Amino acid sequence: MNLLLKRATIIDKNSVYNNQQMDIHLIDGRIASIEKEIKNITNATEISADNLHVSNGWIDVNCNVKEPGFEHKETLNTVCNAAAQGGFTAIAAMPTTHPITDSKANVHYIINASAQHAVSVLPIGAITQQREGKHLAELYDMQQAGAVAFSDGKRTITDAGLVTRALQYVQPFGGRLMLYNDDKNISLKAQANEGTVATTIGLKGAPALAEHIMVQRNIMLAEYNNASVHLCNISSAGSIALISAANAKGIHITCDVAAHYFMLDDSTLEGFDSNYKFQPPVRNSSNKAALITALHNNSITAIGSDHTPEPIEDKNVEFENAAYGIIGLETAFSVARSATQALVPISTLIHAFTYGPAQVLGINITPIAVGIMANITLFDPTLNYTFTPHHIHSLSSNTPFVNAEFTGKALGIINKNTYIKSK
What does the DSSP assignment read for 321-387? Predict the structure, then answer.
């Protein structure tokens, strides 16, 4: 590979080239030189764009890969293709597979089956056996096999004692717990956010209280055990307030918010389009605005895709019976950029796609510099385009964003000595 990136603005807070427009020459996947202008490079493929930017490779902190077990929804190959198109060089794979990723053998499968792709797949092991919330899984063995963290996905562990034992168990080897926050005794089988919209259209609503209760419980468990905890799929301003207050007290809590929660609110449900059916549900417009403000204030650690592929036969049914979820890899950056550009600087947004997820997962990021193996994302933060089915590389197509107008687009990735251009 012999590439020359022309006039690329580097966004990397830890690089000496941060915010500078430079030419970048790469040979065999390694950055050979970074100069204001590079000329007379033999046989190099030149890459340029009107407003080319590069950053450290984006990391998706929360992705459902589906293989093994649900290959009709997504395969490791198609999820990696979707990730590359969306600008991600790494995706953290939730244990929502069959068999569930709750043993070292299943961790090895995820790593080995995806090893040849330019996108790195980082297995997240289940906290409990079969994600049943009853008995701890093989946490240490999975960590030794390559699991970067532990989660039961979108299954709240209701047993506080079990969460405490898990926190105490993983501390000696630096394991990380990623906890979902939903008190099912309150939310039950809700279809939407509790509020005016749900009442008007006749859908059962889930109050944000169901999230707040579990967020507060998990904060208290983190404090009691002097442990770090990551809270997944946060959807409400009230939860962000609790997390911010905890961090101010010295309790180490990180969190992620899926990109579409910055753009959508519960008014989208008025058309009963099941592509807007998410878990947790999107809240009202004032809550959406509060999440954008929280991102601007660095109260949100990471932006995730919450990529959850579902086939058309599970989505194109009555709203009440439709599966939850959205494919988010191809659109996460575009959605987040479009929704937040008026308030959130591009450097802050990119931090939530790079150093933020790396902090959650315990990954070291090497700043962009001469001599390093390139793990970078190419993007244009100002490009206006229409998202069409042509841009979907997931095996499933459950997204409400077809024909949406976006600002900001991934242009490609360079990782593992491979360049993949986004369409």
Answer: GSPP-B--TTTHHHHHHHHHTTTS-HHHHHHTTTHHHHHHHT---PPS-TTSBP-EEEEEEEEEEE-
* Residue 13 CB burial class (10 angstroms; 0-12, 13-18, ≥19): middle
Residue 74 exposed, middle or buried by CB count within 10 Å (0-12, 13-18, 19+): buried
Fold assignment, 57-361: TIM Barrel (3.20.20)
| pLDDT at 316 > cutoff 90 | yes
For the cut 90, the answer to whether the pLDDT of residue 41 exceeds it is no
* pLDDT tens figures, 1-12: 899 999 999 999
306 labelled catalytic: yes
Three-state secondary-structure class, residue 218: helix
pLDDT at 42: 86
- pLDDT tens track for 128-180: 999 999 999 999 999 999 999 999 999 999 999 999 999 999 999 999 999 99
What DSSP letter does each residue of 98-160 carry, written as one string?
A: SS-S-SHHHHHHHHHHHTTSSSEEEEEE-SBGGG-SSSB--HHHHHHHT--EEE-SS-----H
Could you say which of 256, 306, 314, 380 is catalytic?
A: 306
Helix-strand-coil split of the chain, %, nearest 5: 35, 25, 45
- 2-53+370-421 maps to which CATH number? 2.30.40.10
- With cut-offs at 50, 70 and 90, classify the pLDDT of residue 73: very high
Q: What is the pLDDT of residues 182-238, one digit of tens each?
A: 999 999 989 999 999 999 999 999 999 999 999 999 999 999 999 999 999 999 999
Residue boundaries of the structural domains of the chain:
2-53+370-421, 57-361
pTM summary value: 0.97
Cα 262 from Cα 303, distance rounded (Å)? 10
Beta strands in 176-311 (DSSP E): 177-179, 192-193, 205-206, 229-231, 253-258, 302-304
